[in-house]
Amino acid sequence: MPLTSENETSQSFQSSPKKTSIIDDTYDEDADPDYTLGHDAIITEEDDGSGISSLSELSEGEEISDDDTSTYSEDDQKLVDHKGIFGTGSRMASQSSLDMIVRTHDRFRTFIHEQEIPRKLLHVVIGFVTLYLYTLGYQSKDVVKQIGIAGVFVYSLDLLRLNWKLFNKAYCFVVGFLMRENEVKSVNGVIWYILGCMITLLYATKDVSIMSILLLSWCDTAASTVGRRFGYLTPKIARGKSLAGSFGAFVMGIFACYFFYGYLAPQYPQFNKEFLWTAQSSYLSLNALALLSGFIAALSEGIDIFELDDNLTIPALSGIFLDATIKLASK
After folding, report:
1. Can you cite an annotated GO cellular component (predicted)?
2. Are 16 and 59 in contact, with CB atoms under 8 Å apart?
């Protein structure tokens, strides 16, 4: 577009209405989150007759070249540069803030991915769901049936996605945040989880089954979390296993036993008739059983049997060890 002449520009200055001066000590820009200067705003000098120059915008439709500095003084230029009136300082600050936010989000996403936060949350929630079903009076055979149906459904999806690349891509897009990289082209870990829970529910008593699922749900999560954080400080005891992780499983196993046998079960005595362990029927005290549960959790988590999935081996081994030990200590 053509530049306006100097006379036209001067006339526009005289005819334009007086704008509120930006140099207003009573106005706090920082206190006004909605304060912005128009993208096309051009600041000029206007004399109000009092000898004090103020800054105002050119009226809409008027233009001035980027290198035309005849309309404002050197002092105003310094003020413009200092205040960032042309947006340079503001844009730089905004870009810096944006970069910082992006870096923070990237680090957060990396942390979530490395620590498998969604997967661990699912593990932990399953333990609480198990306890909730117990408080409602569900029997093992009822839960096995429902879990079996879920297992058939998940396995069918796996067969479909592993033989249909397009469906696998869509499947991973939806639930990929719960999967590990090696599960993209192999069996989903959920299937092993379901199978492990079904095994212990089928052969063990109600209390042993619940404890086995808790050791899988909570202790495996604790072992993974502690192992990833402190595993480099301790010796490795198996493939992908560290002493630090086993210690995390040990502590959580003790907590799970106290929480279930010591706190929750006494509140629902009507559902405890099938329990294998009771304080009256066993030589094992609650404290001894808690320590035993911790050792079993650490052992089951640390053992690597033919590189089978932990979701299968932990509940199965935990159920076997707990069942055998409690029976040996029964009166």
Report:
1. endoplasmic reticulum membrane
2. yes
CA distances to 35, 86, 217 from 28, in Å = 10, 18, 55
Beta-bridged to residue 44, according to DSSP, are 56
Q: What is the pTM of this model?
A: 0.66
HSE on the CB side for 5, CA within 13 Å? 3
For 172, the enclosing helix (H) or strand (E) is helix 165-175
Total residues belonging to the chain:
331
CB-based contacts of 151: which residues, under 8 Å, 6+ apart?
191, 194, 195, 198
pLDDT in tens, 127-143: 999 999 999 999 988 89
Say what the pLDDT of residue 55 is. Answer: 40
The neighbour count for residue 327, using CB atoms within 10 Å, is 13
286-302 vs 243-257: helix crossing angle, rounded to 10: 150
Two tokens, residue 233: 């400080």
